[in-house]
What does this fold into?
Amino acid sequence: MLAFLSSLFINGLVTGSMFMLVALGVTLFYGVLRIINLAHGDVFMVGAYMAFYAGTYLHLPYWAVVIVTMMGCAVLYPILDLLVFRRLRGSELGPLITSVGLSMALESLVQGIFTANAQAVPSPYLNNLVNIGTVSVPLQSLLMIPLTLVVVAALYVFLRRTRTGLMVRAVAMEPRVSQLMGVRPEYVYGVVFVLAGLLVGLAAATMAPELYVTPTMGVELTVDAYIVVVIGGFGNVEGAIVAAFILGLINSFVSGLGLADWATTIALALLVGFMMVRPSGLVAERLGVRQ
Amino acid sequence: MNGSRRFLASFLPAAALCAVVALAALLFADAYLAQVAFLTGITVILVLGESFAVGNMGQLLMCQAGFYGIGAYVSALLEMHGMPPYLAPAVGITCGAVSGLVVGLAATRIRGHYLAIVTLAIGVIVEELLNNLQGITNGPIGLVGVPTFFGPLNAGNQADYIVVVWGAVIVVLGCLALLRESRFGWFLRAIRDSEAAAESIGLRIGTYQVATVTVAAAVAGLAGALYTNYAGLLVPDLFSYGLSAQILATAVLGGINSFGGAVVSSLVFNGVPQMAQVTAFYQYLIFGVVLIVMMQFAPRGLSQIGVYAVSLARRRLLGWGAGQPNAATVRRP
Amino acid sequence: MSTGAVALGAERVSREFGGVQALKDVSFAVGEAEIVGLIGPNGAGKTTVLNAITGVDTAFSGRITFRGQDVSRVPAPVRARLGMARTFQRASLFPSMSCFENVAVAALAAGLSQTEARRRAEEAVERVGAGAVAQRLAAEVPLGTQRLVEIARAIVRRPTLMVLDEPLSGLEEAEVERVCRVIQELNAAGLAFLWVEHNTRAVLAISHRVIVLDLGRKIFDGGVDQVGEAKEVLDAYLG
Ligand SMILES: Nc1ncnc2c1ncn2[C@@H]1O[C@H](COP(=O)(O)OP(=O)(O)OP(=O)(O)O)[C@@H](O)[C@H]1O
Ligand SMILES: [Mg+2]
It folds into this structure.
């Protein structure tokens, strides 16, 4: 029983790590650019296919797959920004609508290239079981947790300690004032897209081996990411981290009770309920909602 | 406020277009085209509801497919337990309205673009419920042997189906156009334009948001009931997020809150590809790409392009009148 | 002139914005049929007071009473129905409607029939002198005209208290005079006014009483003839 519970717990932490990596991108988009990007999960999906291609067709070693995927997403996102979002700066509804179009386009493009069949991404660590006390967990899963911690710590240091990070935070807090002080917003936006790409690429490369990769996998992840962000508070990085783990644990325990089919419904009901009770999120108030 | 003139101006062209399409389908359609004509009519209804909601709230409703599915499943289940099919439209409208009311009430405190996220979540919940409530919905296998209005589509009854669905389109158009020019419609516009000012003249924003979602959902529920009584078969996949996205895309491409635009856009982006037997896959791709491109260059959709084309033609051909479209009327949504 | 009965009461109203004390224990009253000017330097908290009074902001502490009723937690639209009307510092018309429609929709929102709403809207638009632009889109007319239309939209509901936030800014001299005259006429018909305005000359000319705010505190409350002599006021404006 204890072993079962601890394996669910570890599983929850792993899922939570993935949610966090994906949700951090969404939070950055809202916090800095004030846009809601419903195609973020689809970029994860594209990343998963990059990992699939790099691993299965290019036969790259797994560490290289991770790097290629992260780089690939970090390059892809600014390009998508240029093509899709750039002309719509300042509008909120415009980017939201185009992101729906982007999601449709990415989904069907990937389906055109790789078909709609589910694919598996190879990883040497998948069958490598590690014993922690009485529980044995695939090494693949365990990789996720330290990697996420390192990346989040790096992001934190980047935002707090570097000049560019300071600019990002300045634009997030006071877009007008920071412009007057010589910060070029387009530069900051570019940085945000690269960061979001790196984060989502890492999530894709590390999680894809444990998932079935399909062109339609993105939507659910987008929804999960927004659940995290809504519960954590829009644009609130700390809140998103807490919420990601809560959601990951809920997901894991609900599946553990044999209700895997209902996991999303329960998470979504949680989201809707949360929006009704505390529309401004768990941690702090941001704009958009009246208390 | 010239209510009746505005009503006619928005209703007549769109209704005339629908009548022409229906007539063409009646006269020339073979079995395949009759099917396309029917399904396109369903799409027009769904898109009109979405267009009304987005145009009046300035917010996205991402669960039209969910309301559509609820209308379809409830009327199918009731009919399988003996309800006569001619009651289905009323049932569909009621179910849609009730679920819209519930969603609207759940979201009363939610403002701005959060609504897109909540409704997206609700759409996904509906699809999952249809899959998971196996005792009622028969899960992913779906409902088979649902009664229909006139039996399976064939040369003998295709005219009946076309008349029913396009008749419904015209009725929905009329109702929405009336609603838009009514007091209710004016209040919605006020709220969309400025929430603070609308509150200062005594309008409760939450109430109108709930009402708008309810209207859009009722329209989608009607579409669901009509579809059931044509298809005789329902599976959850028919009511997925992908459909909601397509409905939204079609509404935006037509030009938000332009009824004529909604009809044209449904014909161009749903009817024509089906006529040309474009696979669902390419249709989805085209949607995505066209939506992105349109938002870059003509964010107000086909109706904006139409207005521009007319003014260009006037200037070129007649050398008078149109002038520049001014900044205030060609705002980005 | 003030009849003694109180239309609006603010009792120890305070408001904090993330550490910034925008209002501290501000109390005052506006009598029925009184014109009260609310002045003070930039950032004094004038708009914040108006938002608390009209319910745009309900996160303040203290009490707002309106015609004997505690409305502190009553949402803005309900306060409007009780008889408050306001204009905004940043003129907030409905940009997709014509000027006339802006006013007419407010009349409809007051529950009037179509014909009655139209008649009253025409009357209100004429009254503020915006008849010439009635059919033009609100977003297209000059800022000064937008302010006039906003006033028309507020009065068309026949409120008992008008709350105006800098109604004269951006207006030409003739328009300033017109608005002042409209305020006085409506006041003569029994309507109370609380108005924020930087045009001190106009404020002193038509208000019955003046309240001065500085750094979130009330530093003066009295007749227009005494305000020029009050030491605190001079300090606040000069120092
Ligand atoms: N929403 C808000 N968030 C944070 N601070 C605010 C907010 N609204 C007002 N403030 C602060 O409260 C103080 C009072 O602002 P307020 O707008 O009431 O001033 P005001 O007297 O109307 O000034 P002005 O003459 O410039 O209109 C200012 O310091 C302002 O920065
Ligand atoms: Mg102010």
Residues C 17, 20, 22, 40, 42-48, 89 surround adenosine-5'-triphosphate (ligand 1) (CB under 6 Å). Confidence is low (pLDDT under 50) at residues 283-291 of chain A. The two ends of chain A are 43 Å apart (CA to CA).
